[in-house]
Amino acid sequence: QQKDLDSGRKYSINEITVSGAQSFNEQTVIAFTGLKKGDRIYVPGEKLSAVTKKLWEQNLFSDIAFYVTNIEGENIDLELYIVELPKMNEVSIEGVKKGRIKEIIKDNDLKSGVKITKNLLTTTKNNIVNNLQEKGYYNADVIISTTPEIDSTGIETAKNMKINVIKGERVKVSDIEFIGNEEFSDAKLKRSMKKVKQKNLFRILKRSKYTEELLEEDKVSILKKYKSNGYRDARIVSDTLIIKDDKNVALRLNIEEGKKYYFGNIGFIGNSVYTDNQLRQGLGISKGEVYNGVLLEERIADEKPDAEDLTNLYQNSGYLFSRINPVEVAVRNDTIDFEIRISEGKIAYFDHVTVVGNDKTNDHVIYRELRTRPGQKYSKRNVVRTIRELGQLGYFDPEQLTPNFKNVDANNGTLDMEYSVVEKGASQIELQGGYGGGGFVGTLGLSFNNFSLRNIFNKEAYKPLPMGDGQKLSLRAQGSSYYQTYSLSLTEPWFGGKKPVQLSTSFSHTVQYFYDFRNREADRDQRFLITGGSVGLATRLKWPDDFFTLSQAISFQHYNLQNYNTRLFTFGNGYSNNLAYTIGLSRNNTGTNPIYPTYGSEFAITAKLTPPFSAFSNTDYKALKDRRDVLVAEIQDTGGTVDTQQEIGEIDQERFKFLEYYKIKFKGTWYTQLVDKLVLRSATEFGFLGAYNGDRGIPPFERFFVGGDGLGSYSLDGREVVQLRGYPNQSLSSVDGNTIFNKFSLELRYPITLKQLASIYVLGFAEGGASYDGFRDYDPFGVQRSAGAGLRIFMPAFGLLGIDFGYGFDPILGGNQPNGWETHFILGQQF
Amino acid sequence: CSEYQKVLTGDDIGNKYAMADSLYRKGKYKKALRLMEQIVPAYRGKPQAERLMYLYANTFYELGDNYLAGYQFERFADTYPQSDSVEVAAYRSAKSYAKLSNRYSLDQKETYTALEKLQGYINKYPNSDYREEANASVAELRLKLDRKSYETANQYLRIEDYKVAIEAFENFIVDNPGSKFRSQAFLGRLEAGYRLAINSFPALVKLRLLKAKEYYNSFNKYYKDSEFSPRANEILEDINKRLAAYPTETETETETTP
Lengths: 831, 258
Fold this sequence. Notes:
The structure holds two protein chains of two kinds.
Chain A: E1 10-19, H1 26-33, E2 40-42, H2 46-57, E3 61-72, E4 75-84, E5 88-94, H3 98-108, H4 118-134, E6 141-150, E7 156-166, E8 172-179, H5 186-192, H6 212-227, E9 235-243, E10 248-256, E11 262-269, H7 276-283, H8 293-300, H9 310-315, E12 323-332, E13 335-343, E14 349-356, H10 363-367, H11 380-393, E15 402-409, E16 414-420, E17 427-436, E18 439-451, E19 471-480, E20 483-492, E21 501-516, E22 521-540, E23 548-562, E24 575-588, E25 600-609, H12 613-616, H13 621-638, H14 642-655, E26 662-673, E27 679-690, E28 704-706, E29 720-722, E30 740-754, E31 759-772, E32 784-795, E33 799-808, E34 820-827
Parallel strand pairs in A: 1-4, 5-7, 8-10, 11-13, 14-16, 28-29
Antiparallel strand pairs in A: 1-2, 3-4, 6-7, 9-10, 12-13, 15-16, 17-18, 18-19, 19-20, 20-21, 21-22, 22-23, 23-24, 24-25, 25-26, 26-27, 27-30, 30-31, 31-32, 32-33, 33-34
Chain B: H1 2-9, H2 13-26, H3 29-43, H4 49-63, H5 66-79, H6 86-100, H7 109-124, H8 131-158, H9 162-175, H10 182-198, H11 202-223, H12 229-244
């Protein structure tokens, strides 16, 4: 019976029933709705629609409805009608490989228990078909059927899904035919098609395949080719797909080239900030040139964020609201006149600038790096630069840094900027054990890149460590049967909190025992101790530009030899002090991601100098040298006596009491993005170690060792280990090291993934380098060459891991055969 | 304890419920939680679920797992809007989010969530017993946000970017009319204006000193007798001394700042 509802009044619920439910308990459904007997509600009303919505959101039903079954006075009976969606029991997939089955299940979320909606069926089918077509299976088809799963009592409990994938043959394009092309040959047009390639035995990198989407993209490429050569009106009249057989299709493209056009007058309208001449220069297109629509577009608004186009000319000087439109105003025969219409708009200023997402890093560490600050003029370049600087900090995932424009107000000329950051693990633990250098080597390294020193005594800050103030603390201990190294360093990037002046301090101590390689025994009575520390300041410069950094440091090392006689050390019970001043100038403007830079360059030139002690000393080094030469000659002639050895030792002790030298190094690295994410890294390195006083000579420390993986295991005597793959470690230098080296390197890199969890890239390299003793031997072309390939994996918690296989084309010192293959493991080193 | 293990590994959900309940009453939340985690799915939709879900949320609350407590209480309040405990649940949910809020120098997402929840609570239960506590929490969170933007502005002063500091303090003054840091912000703007002036090219010094004097005047208008007055007066004295060095002329020119 039909009774009228009085929608303006409240009813009291008398009874609620549920119909249509199969697997749900009626009480459960009612409890879920929150409706109770005696509730006073409007029918229809807000309450009922809220309940309906809540039920819909469960994604369990295909139909939900409330019916009024009875009204008596104020009392009302409700019936909730629901139709449950069928649940999936099992899915079976045929026609594809096992691994692919798992992928399909995962991609489409085909878990058991999932509700089988129409949407699920269609998207699953489309996903699989599209995926196959993308791989070249143009004729792929998918049939999905469902069968009920019946339990022992004969009730349908769920449905089974069966997916039958008919892959078909991989379709190749056997022929592409062009009709109507006169300006460009078929071959040229085929080359401009980057996606759909004709079958060709000699092309191995890109397989021939066909999909409609790829063809659409290529049609745009073809037209682009015409448009950039004057054919403004070029169009593809028709494209025909001819199916030859299961495996082959052919394409026929009908082209109408149209006329060839030239640029006519180009006028500017609406510009007040820049003159016509300035804009014309920025545009770089002059009257009479062959019409090039693509170039015109690029010069006005390129896709690259740092392009030197007209849009950025305005965007980088505050004109956020500027709009630039080229308009064809007249076509005279084959000449097109343009008017570039500019609406400059108001200058925009940053109002509020905020950072969100920093759960660990304190505001002050981030805000000081921002290049866009309240009250400053808007500049796109500065926004890009800010993102780069934040990425370089190493605390945030560089791929997830985003500038959010907020409250952009064209009337007031203001905008708010919110930088959204995502923290990543900035601490690294290095725990290594290995067999190297004739014994077991263990390393424990901890490096906290976002440390907070002021909280070191604050118990609450330990979660698990005091973090967030941008300081870097590294602790490292390394030990083996014959040496131990301890080091500690602390870096504060904004010393004093006012200016970006980086203060770094470090301390280290090494004990090395004499090692008898034949008996594999360390003799603890023969020791060599090195203790040292350094303090340095690095300042970011404003001139020539602010990518430059000037660094200065003072370092001191004390070498203490106890009964330690080797070929290198003639003064077995002596000591040596190394007090030096290092000054360096560097420039680094490499791209946002420090692990995988895609553009920019890095230069560093450093000079390490000791005071010229001999200039103030009364010691006659000439006499000492002469005497030493005599003694050395004596040893060579007669073998010498114990006394001769000892006297040489005494002379050397005098020579090296305080080390005296100067060392100059240069390193340059360029990153060039070739195609897509393929990056070329080219680098060159050079180093020179010299003495002020020729008679006193170059010390046995601080020398260069070329060859191998470049990992300095215990390089605390100032030695510089230079990487040159394809050769054993330090095999390209003499035993005591050399005083000059140079190195050239080319490396191609391609990323496999640049996710936060792990960045992985592959690389191929060709490099050459050599070391020399003095300029007389120096020959920049007589280098040892190598080439090879490798892999790098960077994980935030472990740092860099890598492996390289290198082939050395030249013999190592003392050999005459090419060195051949070498395998290098790269750990924790970034270069 | 062995009985606990027996119940824990057993299948009887009724026993588990009873034991979880008694453990909860004794304050042994960790043990109770392990039992509850097992039975919560089984009770979903049953009449006992209301009480169980409340205990469940409360267990997280007592254990200090604010994230889950906030979520579970919120869910409870949504699922059982008719429950007697809904008011307490709504309050504890908001309170849990408030506890999650980071210190001022970090991201404040949870602070905003907590403020929204607390405000919602206060609006919905204007006469609740927790009203005062809730208001106190709101005040505390607001103070935190104030401090954040004040410290941000202050940092620009510290790194000697005076123009930006002035702008940031001005934003602070406009955005936070009732803030505790307002007097400091007025002083900060004066300090920045003053230092900008004395570090300017000679041609700009006078104009900027006059501008700084304006900043002093507005400071003095509102915070004449505050704890920051001595420093403000000190600056004024120096401004006047420096201005006195200029020959008197018409003082109508003012600097045009964007």
